[in-house]
Write a structure and sequence with these properties.
heterodimer; A: 44 residues; mainly alpha; 77% helix; elongated; B: 431 residues; 22 helices
Chain lengths: 44, 431
């Protein structure tokens, strides 16, 4: 269940990534999406 | 000088230089923390250790899932109009005391469910700010009420980012799960909440007749059914935390997402599906910076463990009682918060709870988290005040905010110190 939630949140955040954002926010976005996506893929 | 100290100084130098260059702007906090982790790794001669830098955030993953899901729920509830109705009911109270209490709870609600003060500022802040401004309340007092309300919400259970950071630090090698904090956090923050209530009623709340009226939602006479998801989520989270052995409903993330779905089905105002989906992604994006900061802090903690700094620290504190070390580091967190807001104070919080080890007494961990919360409130730049200024356009000064915030802050810190000193006797709070 938590994998599904992590995937859902990663997708929701990715949906926001398309908008024009400054570099520090893009890094923050990557920092949040990366662990969520890894969790969703069952890496850890 | 020992190698570990040189590494710590390199990491600290990056934090300080980054804070000075960016003037503690929130958007740069995750980047600075990440650079500090990389600097530590390079200073240790280990190169770019991606494994540790990636592994650190995993310690916070489950806790941050709760934070993000809580914010998604709040955003759906807010955009659907339910919170507007709740606000108009809260602001309608005639007596100043009852109105102050209702508005404080309204300000605190988003922070309680998401663990972040920023949630309170984004969700409840605009409504409360407009209400108080219309009534002619001085800008400093408007800011004070919003900031203190959001701060108390952050510290109140079920979710509390400072306690999540502290809980992770207690884990040593294994991260300690964020469980069992409900009653300790409630007992920690409730005295501060009750201390600020009369102050807010007397100094901030305008007399009833000077209020300007209610919001459109009340005038339209909308059904209160839209508040059902909020009530169900609050009841579910409370029951699950108070009776963990008897009630399991899937945890905060599942409850909040179920609440979001229910809230989409029971909106106060009808909206196109596209808007509803936008609310979902807005909710996840709202707390991007605090969550990214916590993840980046995880990388810093992991690198400091990898490079031996944590080992040196654990050897150095052996002669001292755990409470002494905790109180000393809690004391250091306050100037660290004043200087750099979250990054350095968060790092210290992770080390402050280390002496009690991975079999951590959550009462003591909760007590320690009070200092981290206080550090974020005290920060003139990069803390809650900055969020209130930037997101709400509040023209409040640091002194103006602290003129009222000192009381709940002092009470909270005093409770935190008591929790650390008498943590063993207060184990009755752990359920």
């Amino acid at each position: 269940m938590y994998f599904v939630i992590a995937a859902l949140l990663a997708l929701l955040l990715l949906a926001r990534a398309g908008k024009k954002r400054p570099l520090p926010e893009l890094i923050a976005l990557f920092l949040v999406i990366a662990p969520l996506a890894l969790r969703a893929l069952g890496v850890k | 000088m020992r190698e570990e100290i040189v590494i710590a100084l390199a990491m600290l130098a990056v934090l300080l230089a980054g804070g000075a260059i960016t003037k503690n702007q929130r958007r740069y906090t995750p980047l600075i923390l990440l650079l500090s982790a990389i600097a530590g790794s390079l200073a240790a001669g280990m190169g770019l250790r991606f494994r540790e830098i990636v592994e650190g955030p995993f310690g916070f993953l489950d806790a941050m899932l709760s934070v993000l899901c809580g914010m998604v729920f709040l955003r759906v509830l807010h955009d659907g109009g339910a919170l507007g109705i709740l606000f108009s009911r809260a602001a309608r109270r005639k007596s100043r005391g009852a109105r102050a209490l209702c508005l404080m709870l309204f300000m605190a609600l988003p922070g309680m469910l998401s663990g972040s003060a920023l949630a309170g500022i984004l969700i409840s802040g605009p409504l409360v700010r407009d209400e108080l401004r219309k009534a002619g309340v001085h800008e400093n007092r408007v800011g004070q009420f919003v900031v203190v309300g959001a701060f108390l919400g952050m510290m109140l259970p079920p979710a509390c980012i400072p306690a999540m950071v502290a809980a992770n630090g207690a884990g040593s090698v294994l991260p300690t799960p964020y469980t069992g904090f409900f009653l300790p956090l409630l007992a920690l923050t409730l005295p501060a909440f009750l201390a600020y209530w009369p102050l807010a009623a007397r100094r901030v709340m305008p007399p009833a007749q000077s209020r300007t009226g209610q919001t459109e939602e009340t005038r339209a006479g909308t059904s209160l059914l839209c508040l059902l998801p909020l009530l169900l989520v609050l009841a579910a989270v409370t029951l699950e935390n108070l009776f963990p052995a008897q009630v399991y409903l899937g945890g905060m993330p599942v409850i909040c997402l179920a609440g979001s779905l229910l809230s989409m089905l029971l909106p106060a105002k009808k909206r196109p599906l596209r808007d509803v989906l936008t609310s979902l992604s807005d909710g996840a994006a709202d707390l991007l910076l605090p969550v990214a900061s916590v993840f980046a802090l995880g990388a810093v903690i992991e690198v400091s463990s990898m490079t031996g700094l944590r080992g040196l620290f654990s050897a150095a504190i052996l002669p001292y009682a755990p409470a002494t070390v905790m109180l000393a580091l809690m004391g250091l967190m306050l100037p660290a918060g004043l200087a750099l807001a979250f990054p350095l104070a968060g790092w210290l919080a992770a080390y402050a709870v280390f002496p009690i080890g991975w079999m951590a007494n959550v009462v003591m961990v909760a007590g320690c988290s009070a200092a981290l919360g206080a550090a974020v409130l005290l920060a003139p730049r990069g803390g809650i005040l900055t969020d209130a200024r930037e997101r709400l356009g509040l023209n409040a000064s640091w002194r103006g905010i602290m003129a009222g915030a000192w009381l709940p802050l002092t009470v909270l810190l005093a409770c935190g110190v008591c929790f650390v000193l008498f943590g063993d006797a207060l184990r009755i709070l752990i359920v």
